[in-house]
Amino acid sequence: MSTTTKDKRSAARMLGRLVRRAETGSFLGMVVVYIFFAALGGRVFLGAPGFSSWLNTAAEVGIVALAVGLLIIAGELDLSVGSVIPASSLTVAIVSSHYGAPEIIGILAGLVVGLMVGFVNGFLVTRTSIPSLIVTIGTMFGVMGLTLGFTVLIAGSTGVFIVPDPVTKALLGQFVGGMFQVTMFWWAAFIVIVFYLLHVSPYGNWIYALGGDRESARNAGIPTRKLTIGLFMLSGFAAAFVGVGQVLTYQSAQVLTGQAFIFNSIMCVVIGGVLLTGGAGSVIGIVLGTLTFSIVNQGIFFSGLDPNIGSVIIGALLLIAVLSNDSFRKTALSFAAKKAP
Amino acid sequence: MAPIIPVLELRDVEKSFGPIDVLHEISLKVHEGEVLCLLGDNGAGKSTLIKILAGVHKPTSGTILMDGKPVEFDRPRDAADRGIATLHQFGGTFPLMSIGRSFFVGVEPQKKWGPFTVFDRKKANEIAVKAVRDFGITRIDDGDRLVGGLSGGERQSIAIARAVYFGARVLILDEPTAALGVKQAAHVLRIVNETKQRGLAVIFITHQVMHALAVGDHFAVLIRGAVAADFRKGDKTREEITDLMAGGESMADLEAELEGYAQNQEERPPSLGHT
Ligand SMILES: Nc1ncnc2c1ncn2[C@@H]1O[C@H](COP(=O)(O)OP(=O)(O)O)[C@@H](O)[C@H]1O
Ligand SMILES: [Mg+2]
Question: Which of A160, A44, A37 is nearest to A99 (CA)?
Fold first, then answer.
């Protein structure tokens, strides 16, 4: 008898928890947005062309958003991803196409560029008191300038073409069934890895603690510098990975691509319920935010609406998300307090 | 009686930040099962002193001894490894983390799942909840609750329970009752007492004399970075201590001054309430 009341209590508690989760809001937002565009876009949007278009978008921005999301949870920002993407694309194209090195070398070089930029970001953020927003704006422009300079110097133009060999193309740049980018599977792999990092492994606790209160985290013995540098390197790596995928998919690399990823990745993260001030957020939320963002971003083309309306919708979603994240935090904090007699 | 060798001792510790001398010739001792209250007005150097004990700052000169032997702390971790647990005045808890997660920050219980290391959430929650309940805080029964949802007193209590659980020998509390209401403060004071009874040495920092008297065995008053008085329970009255803290300026004088002020006010209507 007492067990049933206990069961009921814990069931109610679980329900309460579910309602209070930020992801619940993100999920509902995604459903609403999907229904909206399904109603406007009809068959085409609901069919494979629709699916593939927003999933392709989601996969690319989603890989960056996962890594940027971890950083935001840890209390940092990374805007340099916008120039790491073209830098790594061009590195692949220059090394493997212009100089004719094996593609695997070009790909590794591209990824190393991302890791290096991430290291510089992390190093500067941990050794100076400059906020990461400013540091990564600096490295973004620095990398952009270097990319442009070296590309023009080496290739004599601002774009480089590459014809990837079939194996690398199949692994990183293929359209499965002519529509679905293979990047999707890589996104899935990133989701699993980042989920493990944040929610399963002990490091997740470090990341939340870092974003919650850096000083206390350090006092508790967490190697905050190493962790911060590691997270910046992960986001550099993720951006570089997307750059590698892009150059192999589109067979060309241009200097001025990737800027859209800066804000798009942050929007996916915030729409997914991650607190911009750090300390809270989840991988499921980031994935839901990414899907929502991509549905709007692509759905607009199927809807017959003015594409500018898409931007308005995304802006509105972002505001709603920030407001509800904030009220989520307040209710999550006050709910328990109210339980007091 | 208290053992002869103190767990923690400071000898002639000085600290300056560049040209600013914050601490002068501080010598203090604290024994097992004893509460040392460090009193002093705002800016007296209390937080700086405990940051030295916590390994956040290094003393400019002087020695720290543990069990009679000199020790040096290069970083907070060194102090923690020797059993000095510090609850800093600001920060120290993670409001958006669950009780179980925050309890184990930096020392997460782990289990293996194939080749993967997994944070053992269930174990973390169980241990955290039990540790807090052992201190008589029975209202906490769910390790998944967010720390930020608890009252200030409960948060302090969890932090103390955490330190005790991880085998602290010296517990340093920087103004744990400063931001709390009367009831919450009483709650924390009770837990300080419980901690002492478990044989820990406690350094309790406050500028509220009542709170100090409620738990202290031994008192030191810090004025402008120097120990102005060092005495045991029962040696001084509350008024004497308050006067000391005010920097020699007698509280009685202050009261007289206030009265004079009040009288002045009365002569000039409208006066408030004094009819
Ligand atoms: N890092 C620092 N650099 C320079 N001065 C400091 C520093 N930390 C503390 N002080 C100064 O030392 C004095 C004592 O401060 P503190 O130890 O915080 O006092 P309390 O905790 O007793 O209120 C203050 O005048 C403060 O300005
Ligand atoms: Mg202080």
Answer: A160
Tokens of A120: 């510089």
Average confidence (pLDDT) over A149-154: 94
Give ipTM to 2 decimals: 0.82
Q: Within 10 A of A238 (CB to CB), how many other CB atoms are there?
A: 28
Model pLDDT for residues A69-116, shown as the tens digit of each residue: 999 999 999 999 999 999 999 999 999 999 999 999 999 999 999 999
Radius of gyration over every alpha carbon of chain B, rounded to an integer in angstroms: 21
Two structure tokens written together for A276: 């911009």
Residue ranges of alpha helices (H) inside chain B are 46-53, 76-81, 99-103, 121-133, 152-165, 182-197, 209-215, 238-245, 251-267
Distance (Å) from the alpha carbon of B199 to chain A's nearest alpha carbon: 23
Residue-number span of the structural domain to which A106 is assigned: 27-326
**Gyration radius of chain A's alpha carbons:** 21
Does B150 sit within 8 Å of A337, measured CB to CB? yes
Whole-structure pTM value: 0.84
Q: Does domain B28-236 have CATH number 3.40.50.720?
A: no
DSSP strand pairing (B201-206 vs B35-40): parallel
Give contacts of A196 with chain B, Cβ < 8 Å. Answer: 116
Whichever domain contains A58, its CATH number is 1.10.3470
pLDDT tens profile B133-165? 988 888 888 999 888 888 888 888 888 899 899
The two three-digit tokens of residue B78, written as one number: 């060194």
Min Cα separation A220/chain B (Å): 6
**Residue among A271, A190, A265, A199 at smallest CA distance from A234:** A190
Tokens of B225: 């970075």
Chain A and chain B share a number of CB contacts under 8 A equal to: 97
- Domains in chain A, number: 1
Domain locations in chain B? 28-236
Helices A48-73 and A259-271: angle between axes, nearest 10 degrees: 80
What are the distances in angstroms from CA A35 to CA A41, B81, B136, B141?
A: 10, 57, 52, 41
A216 contacts B92? CB cut-off 8 A: yes
